[in-house]
Amino acid sequence: MSSKLVAAGLFSVLAVFALVPLGVLLLRSTGEGWLSVWREDGALWALRGTLLTASGAALFALVIGLPVAILLGRTDLAWARAARTLLTLPSAIPPYIWAMGWVALANPRAGLLNLVLGPGTLDIYGAAGIAFVLGGAGLPLVVLPTLAALSRIDASLEEAARLSGASVWKTLLAVPVPLALPSALSGAALVFLSSASSFGVPYILGVTANPPTPTLTTRLYGEVLMGAGGLHRAAVLSLGLLVIAVSVLVLNAWLSGRSAVRLSSGKGLSHRPLPLGRARWVTSLLVMALLAVVIILPLSAVFLTSVQPTWGELRGLTFSHWQGVLSSPRTLAAAGRSAMLSLAAAALVTGLGLAIATTRRKWLETVGDGIFALPGTVFALALIVTFSRDLRFIAFERVALVLALGNTLTLLLIAYVAKHLAYGIRNSSDGLSQLDPSLAEAARLSGASGPRAFLDAVVPQLRGPLGAAFLLTFLTCMTELTVSVLLVPTGAEVLGTLVFELQSYADPASASVIACAFIVMILIVITTTSVVARARGARR
Amino acid sequence: MASVELTGLFKQYGATPVVRGVSLRVEPGSLLALLGPSGCGKTTTLRLIAGLETPDAGTIAIGERLVSDGAQHVAPEKRGLGMVFQSYAVWPHKSVEQNVAYPLQLQKRSREEISQRVSEALGWVRLTGLGGRLPQQLSGGQLQRVALARALVAKPGVLLLDEPLSNLDLALREELRGEIAALRARLGITMILVTHDQSEALALADTVAVMNGGRIEQLAAPEVFYRAPATPFVAGFVGGANLLEGRAEGGFFHWRESRFTLPAEVSTANAEGVLAVRPEDFLVTLGQGGGEPELTLSARLFAGQQVEYRFMVGEAVLRCMGPPLAVSPGAKVRVSIARALFFAR
C-alpha cells in the first residue's frame, strides 16, 4: 500500500519537473508558425551541421574504436592495461576540454602543432574538426561495450577458424569482428546522440570557424540569448533535436536486441589471446601512438596553455595565471556555487535514485533513463519555457502557491538532478538486485521496523554503488556546461560557464587553468576510487 | 517459550496456491519440523509465521496472542521471534559482536547488559573469542553459528529455522545438528524447523509435519512415520518406500505383469490401490519355488553390509535391499514381499 504511495509521489515529482515541461515544450514546438521558423535563414543549415558533425563523430569513433577494441580484447597487444585505462578518460573529462586542447594545438595561426609544422597546416575549426574532437571524446562509448561483448566470446571459436586455415588477421575479421559489431554499432549510435546533444565543442570550434558551422544546439543558444521571440524559435527548433534523439534510441534498442543473441553468458569461457607474431610491436606502437594523439596530446596542450605567458608563446613558461585565476574572487565565487550545486545534486540524485529503485517499478526507472538520454539543451529549454513565468496555484481557494523558479539557481539544481537521476537509479537498482533479501528480513526478525531494517541492513550494503552514483553526479555537475549555459541566472555563473566564457571571449590561458584543475580533480577521484575498490576486493 | 497455533492457513502467489489450509499446534518448548520436497509450501508456512508474508486466510497465534487473523497482521519485529536463514543472512558490514548485539540494541538495553548477553550467546554457540571478526573471515559453519546466536540473544519465545544446515557440508551438518539439539535442551525454547532432509527432521523433532502440495500429509511423532505412514506419499518420502500401483485380489497383489503374494498382515478386500514396500522389506532370493515373480536384475549397488538391487519394470524402478548374493545384472532373481502397507484408492 505504502509502496504504491511512494511510487506515486516520486512520479509526481518527476512529472512536475520533467515530464510536464517536456510536454509544454513539445506543444510550443509544433505551435503556430512552426513551419516558418524552420524556413528561416540558417535553421536547416544548423540541422545539417548537427547531422554532419554527429555522423562524422560516430564514424570516427567506430573506425578507430572497433579495431582498437578488437586488438585489446582478442590479441596479445602490448601495454594493453595502460591502453584500457587511457581509454576510460575521454568520457570522464568533459568534451569542451578536449576542444580547448585542440584549439591550442591546431589553431591555424598560433596552434602549437602549426608552430612546428608551419602556420596554417592544420585547422581544427569547422565541421571536420568538431567531428574529430567529438568522436575522440566518444571513443569509450564504442570501445567499452565492444570489449564487454568480446570478453564473452570463447577462444575456441577463433581456434576453429585458425585450424580451418585462417591467418591471425583473417581470424580476427572472421570471428570477433562480426560478433562484436552490433555492440560497436550501438556504441557509435550513442556517440551520434551525445555529439548531436553537445554544445561546448561545436560552439568553441564552430561559431568562429570560417565559414561558421552552426549546429542546432549552438543556434538554440543564440536564439535563447535574444529573449522572448528567440525563445519561441528555440522551442520550435528543439523538436529537431528531440526527433534525432528518439530515433537514435529506437535504433539502439533494435541493435542491442540483436547483439544479445549469440554470445555466451560468461561461465567456463576460456580466454587465450591470439598471437600477433612479428607484427606485435608495430601494431602496439601504432595503437599507443594513436591514443597519445587523441588523448595525451590535447590534455598536455591544455596544461601548456595554462603556463604560457602569452598565447602561442612557448618561452618563459610561468605559473602566474594559476595564481591569478585560482585566487580571483570570480573563480572562487563560481567554484563555491558549483560545489554547492553539485553536492546538493549528487545527494538528491543518490537519495531519489535509491527511493525510485526501492519501489521496484520498472516504468519509473525508464522515465529516469529517458530524461538522461534527452539532449541537455532540449531539457534545459523545456524548463525555461515552463518556469520562466511565475506559476501560481490556488489551493483550497485560499492558499496561493507561487512557484517562481525562472532565473534561479534552484532551477539549475532541478535540471542537474533530473538530468543525472539515471545514475542514482541504475546504481541502486543494480545493487539491490544483487542483495540477499534475507539480510533485511533478519533485521526485521531482530526487532527492527521496515524502514529501520532498510537503513541498518540494506543501505550499508549499497555503499559502493551509492558512493559511485554520488561521485559521478558530483563530478559531472562540477564541470557541466550544456544545461548550465542556458539556465545559469544572470550574474551567478558556475565553473562550467566560467571556463566557457573565458575560452570563447578573452582568456584561454585562464580557462585552461580551471580546465587543468578539473582534470586533476577527475584523475584524483578516479584513482582513489579504483585503489579503494581494489583494497576492498583484496580484503574479501 | 511460547506455543504456536495455525488454523486454516491459506496463501497464494498470483493464481498459484502455495499453502492450502494448514492447521497445527506446537506445544511450548517442543520442536516441530516441517518436512517436504521443495515447493511443498513449508518455507512459505514458516515465513507466514514470521510475518514476512501475510496469509490470505486463516489465523496465526503465538503464545496467547493472535498475530494474524486474515485482516490484521502484526509486523514481524513485534512477534517476539528469532529466525535463522538458509543463507545465514549475517550482515557483512558488522562484526560478529555487532551482528549478535543488534536485537538488543533495538531493545535499547544498556551497554553492559548488551556486552554481557552477547558474550553469553557467543558461548552458547562456541564462538567465544571470535566476536571481533568480520563475517568475511568466518567459515560457513561459523557464520551459521553467528546467525543462531543473533536469533537467540534476545530470548525469543519461538525460534524459526529455515533450512539452517543445507548450505553446509555433511560433517558440519552433523555437528551443528547436535548443537541445535543441545541448545534446545539448555534453553528450552520452542522451535520450528523447515527442512527437506528427513534424517534431520526425524533426529531433532518432537513432532514432524510432512507437507506436500501446500497441505500437511501427516502430523505425528517421528517414530510413527516408519510404523504407520498415513499416505503413500509419506511412505515414499520418509521411508523411501517403493510405491506400486496395482490391484489386491485374493491375497495377491497384481502389479504390471507380476503377481506378488501379499504378506499375512496385509488383510484387505479386493481393491485397486497403492502398495508401499520399503527396500528392506523385499526378499531377494536365487532359489526356485513359490509362485513369486522372477525379475531381471538391472543393477547391483554395493552399500556396505547390504546390497541394493534395482529392477527396471517397464518405466518403473524397484529398489530392494538385501544381503549380498552372487548375481550380476541381467540375471533373473526371485523377488517377494515380506512386509508392506496397502493404501486402497
How do the strands and helices of this protein lay out in sequence?
The complex is a heterodimer of chains A (540) and B (345).
Chain A: H1 2-29, H2 34-39, H3 43-74, H4 80-92, H5 95-106, H6 112-117, H7 127-137, H8 139-150, H9 155-163, H10 168-174, H11 176-197, H12 200-206, H13 216-225, H14 228-259, H15 280-307, H16 320-327, H17 329-358, H18 362-373, H19 376-387, E1 391-395, E2 399-403, H20 409-433, H21 438-445, H22 450-458, H23 463-478, H24 482-487, H25 495-506, H26 508-539
Antiparallel strand pairs in A: 1-2
Helix pairs in contact in A: 1-14, 1-18, 1-19, 3-7, 3-8, 3-11, 3-13, 4-8, 4-15, 5-7, 5-12, 5-15, 7-12, 8-11, 9-10, 11-14, 13-14, 14-19, 15-26, 16-26, 17-20, 17-23, 18-20, 19-20, 20-23, 21-22, 23-26, 25-26
Chain B: E1 4-13, E2 16-26, E3 31-35, H1 42-50, E4 57-62, E5 65-68, E6 81-84, H2 96-106, H3 111-124, H4 140-152, E7 158-162, H5 170-187, E8 190-195, H6 198-204, E9 207-212, E10 215-220, H7 222-227, H8 232-239, E11 242-249, E12 252-255, E13 258-261, E14 271-277, E15 282-285, E16 294-303, E17 306-313, E18 316-322, E19 332-337, E20 341-344
Parallel strand pairs in B: 3-8, 3-9, 6-7, 7-8
Antiparallel strand pairs in B: 1-2, 1-4, 4-5, 9-10, 11-12, 11-14, 12-13, 14-20, 15-19, 16-17, 16-19, 17-18
Description:
The complex is a heterodimer of chains A (540) and B (345). Chain A is mainly α and 540 residues long. Chain A has a domain at 43-261 and 278-305: MetI-like fold (Orthogonal Bundle). Chain A contains 26 helices and 2 strands. In chain A, helix 17 (329-358) runs antiparallel to helix 23 and helix 20 (409-433) runs antiparallel to helix 23. Chain A starts with a helix and ends with a helix. Chain B is an alpha+beta fold. Chain B has 2 domains: 4-228, 3-Layer(aba) Sandwich (Rossmann fold), CATH 3.40.50.300; 241-344, Nucleic acid-binding proteins (OB fold (Dihydrolipoamide Acetyltransferase, E2P), Beta Barrel), CATH 2.40.50. Chain B is built from 8 helices and 20 strands. In chain B, the strands form 4 sheets. Chain B has a 6-stranded mixed β-sheet with strand order 6-7-8-3-9-10, sandwiched between helices. Chain B has a 5-stranded antiparallel β-sheet with strand order 13-12-11-14-20, with helices on one face. In chain B, strands 15-19-16-17-18 form a 5-stranded antiparallel β-sheet, with no helix packed on it. The interface between A and B is medium-sized, with 22 and 27 residues.
